[in-house]
Specification:
Layout: H1 2-5, H2 9-13, H3 21-30, E1 33-46, E2 49-60, E3 63-67, H4 81-87, E4 96-102, E5 105-108
């Protein structure tokens, strides 16, 4: 995550699934990311998918979110794991990030 907030597209896009590297590079060239006091919250795994919560202040372009809740973005009662994953793909800052395990490696969902 450090490379994302350093706006280092080369290192950040190494975590993108191979088929999504070009999308990652396009996003990284168009949006500025910033963060302060970033650390990990809780994680949740479901088969080959995972959600990781970030704590701290994260900014994408000029939209910022501060998260102190280690469970923010993880499924709550009445919300499925897939709905929580889909919420990370909306384009707005979200404290949870989705990952998928393919061929022995965790990849970020972009």
């Amino acid at each position: 995550m450090t490379s994302l907030y350093d706006n280092n597209s080369t290192d950040t896009c190494e975590f993108a699934q191979p088929a999504r590297v070009q999308t990652c590079e396009t996003v990284m060239s168009q949006v500025t990311f910033q963060a302060t006091s970033i650390r990990l919250g809780h994680t949740l795994l479901n088969g080959n998918q995972g959600l990781v919560v970030q704590l701290g202040t994260m900014c994408e372009a000029k939209a910022c979110v501060t998260n102190i809740n280690p469970d923010a973005g993880l499924p709550k009662p009445g919300v499925s794991f897939q709905q929580a994953v889909a919420a990370t793909q909306t384009g707005s800052p979200d404290p949870a990030h989705a990952f998928v395990f393919i061929d022995g490696r965790w990849w970020a969902e972009f």
